[in-house]
């Protein structure tokens, strides 16, 4: 009888994708469980992009200490960005943890567990090399959490060379490296065989895919190769660094019907002075030029973004410029955060920090403004007929189905048929909510 593994994942889609791979790597000995109390192996996949999720790791791992006392054979491990960042310190602070594997080392998890079963001495592996190429881990029908899912994440590159002054990613994910295109194609074809109809391509900066590797296609060319896969209906990607958003990529998005009309384009701040301090390598004017080109070639494009408030030295005037950018661009949605110091980063050493209370006020102002903009944009969908890829039942009711538009807006809708998961349908939008739309099924398209 196989043992059971419980994985708790924090952070971005890349971490979710890594957790998928861990399950597949362990498939011969372990099956997944949703209950940590029945697990023989507990893994916490961690995020350290901001301070709050890093703190969550310690409380999460602490919850499993009593289980370790009950079951002597239980193994507890930490992987991901906090593992990469903290290394041996995690074992010192949490001595009941059996292994700590960094963002490149988690691929060795099978060998690590075999070693621990023979010798219980804690193992820490956090080597980060510029030459690293992740091994191909093909999706599995019975083990992957993508089982019977319509959408899936596919990592096409990892690491980052940009070194924004606030960002820990280059220090915990390493330098930028792209996966071979043939491996990406093979993985997506396998997902399509398992019923996936939409993939989201992941990377810290997908726009620079293949630029460092000899003989690789660039990102627009890779998109066209992926679009040629039969029975794959939709392609999304994240994240796009504004400085590397090319007209070639915008035209590819406009011309290829499989590429969704949505782009996540992190602005971070609306002030050129703060953007320079953040080392973002673009001005707000350059950013707005790219937004204008996107809207010229793809009129219905949905743009989402990230905003950091309270960056060191951000004046009231700087912050007002961020609010003005929100009003000018009119994003569908934003992800907004208070600045927090991260280890290794340049901004950690900036002295002119903004008081916590002021950061809180600015965050609320940003969120209130965006709430109004989002509601106005969503109201414009009412009365329209939209193509929706059905992902399953609505989270609110088993009498409703849920899917997304090409513009990545969630639609909950009523239908006389509830067996539409994995189908592309036409839905008439009847109502706009705060973060989703409501509608009524019209017909099956695919």
From TrEMBL:
Its main location: cytoplasm. It is found in: Cytoplasm. It catalyses: N(6)-dimethylallyladenosine(37) in tRNA + (sulfur carrier)-SH + AH2 + 2 S-adenosyl-L-methionine = 2-methylsulfanyl-N(6)-dimethylallyladenosine(37) in tRNA + (sulfur carrier)-H + 5'-deoxyadenosine + L-methionine + A + S-adenosyl-L-homocysteine + 2 H(+). Its EC number is 2.8.4.3. Residues 146-376 form the Radical SAM core domain. Gene3D superfamilies: Methylthiotransferase, N-terminal domain, tm_1862 like domain. Residues 3-118 form the MTTase N-terminal domain. GO terms for molecular function: 4 iron, 4 sulfur cluster binding; metal ion binding; tRNA-2-methylthio-N(6)-dimethylallyladenosine(37) synthase activity. [4Fe-4S] cluster 2 binds at residues 160, 164, 167. Binds 2 [4Fe-4S] clusters. One cluster is coordinated with 3 cysteines and an exchangeable S-adenosyl-L-methionine. Residues 379-443 form the TRAM domain. Its cofactor is [4Fe-4S] cluster. The keyword Mitochondrion does not apply. InterPro entries: Elp3/MiaA/NifB-like_rSAM, Methylthiotransferase, Methylthiotransferase_CS, Methylthiotransferase_N, Methylthiotransferase_N_sf, MiaB_methiolase, rSAM, rSAM_horseshoe. GO terms for cellular component: cytosol. Keywords: 4Fe-4S, Cytoplasm, Iron, Iron-sulfur, Metal-binding, S-adenosyl-L-methionine, Transferase, tRNA processing. [4Fe-4S] cluster 1 binds at residues 12, 47, 81. Monomer. Catalyzes the methylthiolation of N6-(dimethylallyl)adenosine (i(6)A), leading to the formation of 2-methylthio-N6-(dimethylallyl)adenosine (ms(2)i(6)A) at position 37 in tRNAs that read codons beginning with uridine. Belongs to the methylthiotransferase family. MiaB subfamily. This is tRNA-2-methylthio-N(6)-dimethylallyladenosine synthase. The gene is miaB.
């Amino acid at each position: 009888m196989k043992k059971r593994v419980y994985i708790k994942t924090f952070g971005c889609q890349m971490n979710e994708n890594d957790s998928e791979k861990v399950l597949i790597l362990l498939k011969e000995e372990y099956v997944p469980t949703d209950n940590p109390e029945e697990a023989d192996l507990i893994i916490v996949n961690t995020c350290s992009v901001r301070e709050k999720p890093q703190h969550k790791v310690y409380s999460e791992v602490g919850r499993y200490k009593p289980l370790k006392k009950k079951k002597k054979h239980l193994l507890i491990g930490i992987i991901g960005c906090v593992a990469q960042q903290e290394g041996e310190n995690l074992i010192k602070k949490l001595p009941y943890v059996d292994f700590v594997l960094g963002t490149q080392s988690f691929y060795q998890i099978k060998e690590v567990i075999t070693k621990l079963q023979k010798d219980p001495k804690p193992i820490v592996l956090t080597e980060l090399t510029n030459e690293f190429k992740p091994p191909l881990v093909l999706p599995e029908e019975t083990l992957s959490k993508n089982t019977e899912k319509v959408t899936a994440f596919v990592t096409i590159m990892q690491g980052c060379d940009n070194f924004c002054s606030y960002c820990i990613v280059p220090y915990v994910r390493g330098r930028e490296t792209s996966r071979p295109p043939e491996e990406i194609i093979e993985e997506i074809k396998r997902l399509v065989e398992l019923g996936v109809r939409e993939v989201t391509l992941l990377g810290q900066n997908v726009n620079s895919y293949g630029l460092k590797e000899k003989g690789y296609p660039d990102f627009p060319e890779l998109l066209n190769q992926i679009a040629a896969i039969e029975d794959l209906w939709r392609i999304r990607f994240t994240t796009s660094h504004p400085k590397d958003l090319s007209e070639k990529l915008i035209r590819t998005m406009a011309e290829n019907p499989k590429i969704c009309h949505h782009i996540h384009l992190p602005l971070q701040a609306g002030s050129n002075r703060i953007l320079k301090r953040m080392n973002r390598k673009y001005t707000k004017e350059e950013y707005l030029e790219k937004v204008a080109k996107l809207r010229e070639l793809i009129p219905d494009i949905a743009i989402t973004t990230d905003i950091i408030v309270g960056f060191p030295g951000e004046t009231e005037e700087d912050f007002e410029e961020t609010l003005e950018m929100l009003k000018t661009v009119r994003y569908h949605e934003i992800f907004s955060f208070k600045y927090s110091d991260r280890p290794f980063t340049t901004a950690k050493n900036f002295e002119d920090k903004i008081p916590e209370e002021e950061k809180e006020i600015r965050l609320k102002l940003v969120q209130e403004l965006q709430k109004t903009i989002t509601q106005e944009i969503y109201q414009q969908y009412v009365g329209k007929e939209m193509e929706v890829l059905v992902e399953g039942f609505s989270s609110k009711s088993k009498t409703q189905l849920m899917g997304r538009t090409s513009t990545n807006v969630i639609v909950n809708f009523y239908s006389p048929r509830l067996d539409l998961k994995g189908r592309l349908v036409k839905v008439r939008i009847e109502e706009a909510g705060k973060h989703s739309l409501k509608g009524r099924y019209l017909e099956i398209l695919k």
